[in-house]
Amino acid sequence: xxxxxxLIGLLAVCANLPAQSxxxxxxxxxxxxxxxxxxxxxxxxDFFDAKGENHYGYSGSLLRLMFSQKxxxxxxxxxxxxxxxxxxxxxxxxxxxxxxxxxxxxxYAANHNDQNAASIFVKxxxxxxxxxxxxxxxxxxxxxxxxEVTPKDETLAIVKRDGISQRLIGTFGFSDVQRSFDxxxxxxxxxxxxxxxxxxxxxxxxxxxxxxxxxxTPVTYLALTKQASFGASKAEWxxxxxxxxxxxxxxxxxxxxxxxxxxxxxxxxxxxxxGHYIMATPTSAGTFDLLGWGALxxxxxxxxxxxxxxGAVEAGFQPKIVKAVRPWLRGGYFYSTGDNNPNDxxxxxxxxxxxxxxxxxxxxxxxxxxNRDLFGELMLRPTKSLVLRSDVHGLWLANSHDLWYSGGGxxxxxxxxxxxxxxxGATGLATLYDISAxxxxxxxxxxxxxxxxxxxxxxxxxxxxxxxxxxxxxxxVNYRF
Length: 481
Known about the structure:
Blueprint: H1 2-14, E1 27-29, E2 32-46, E3 55-70, E4 74-86, E5 93-94, E6 99-100, H2 103-110, E7 117-118, E8 121-130, E9 134-141, H3 154-163, E10 181-190, E11 193-202, E12 219-230, E13 233-246, H4 258-263, E14 268-282, E15 286-301, E16 304-319, E17 328-336, E18 346-347, E19 371-380, E20 386-397, E21 403-407, E22 418-422, E23 428-440, E24 445-456, H5 458-463, E25 469-480
Parallel strand pairs: 16-18
Antiparallel strand pairs: 1-2, 2-3, 2-25, 3-4, 4-7, 4-8, 5-6, 8-9, 9-10, 10-11, 11-12, 12-13, 13-14, 14-15, 15-16, 16-17, 17-19, 19-20, 20-23, 21-22, 23-24, 24-25
């Protein structure tokens, strides 16, 4: 509640402050550009009540320093990262089915049970060769699926950022360490068309502060994207395919018995095929937007056959009335399959691969596996620098025979990367209410505040009978130079 009080106060202040457009100029050493960022966030968790430390706060910082050079036929970049975690809770990891009580517990478990952890590693080190329409990038770099093209239309760009990008492959940018990839990327762009091919091995990181090594779960991605216009309407479509492999021999997270999972250490080989379509249409009353996204999966989940899918439909409207706050109303529905029978030969749970969960779960106690999410959203933009947003999400498990999943994929060699709690035959997960404020003070300085309240349903109540309600609040400051 302390963060919520701060949020209300900041809204009142920011709404009356003019934004500063000036900021630090880039630093140059000859033809080399020196840039970087400093990120600081304090999180206050009150996870669903359980034995152990469910209410705690901790600080996470991430310092990044990049050296880069751009020439006509090539460019390169080398970036160092230094994550610093202070005050991580040491009693928030509990035996199943309670598990990890929020992300503070995930940091503690991933860093040798240390309450304070820090490191420095190479975040990016890549070379890109360029021609008129194509480029090839090699080395260590960041990549997000659906983020290879940014629409020129502002509405489409925001819809794509918040509803398409990073659903299956992302940097896990909310974490205090984040994720990079070692591999290669080919891009061909000509007018409205874009072809992107990407193949890599993800690096360690996300919750583990040591980001030097690899996680041997290679991923390959191929996508064709096209921009389109229909009169005043702007649109974009994409088709994609992803191949993911995991031969690490770690125990998988699924709804089978512990004994069955321990015996099945065979690899994962999954193909994911899908696409999206987004459109923005301006009218005399305001701008309407539509979003459609879907994916099907096939392949092998150890000894099981993978058969799963997911889809999302969203719509929005920006009315021209009340121009002082530029309102934007959005709503939608997401569905991903769950597994109906833990004892047959099929794994029916949609596999989220290597996503950034927090984009789609702002209070990240869930993810997009075995999930149904019906939501409504209101965004207000009283100035160019202030964005206020509030969401309401109704959350259910897609299948009562499957698990309540969380996590964002492999991030260290010896853990699977996704967690699961039993459903106990129920599907009602939670109702999530949240509010956030983001303010751009200068070209380089911004702040963000968030408060989320989750009212647990039957799934949560079975596991956390003491108090099935949870909260998350944070204050963050970002400075770029």
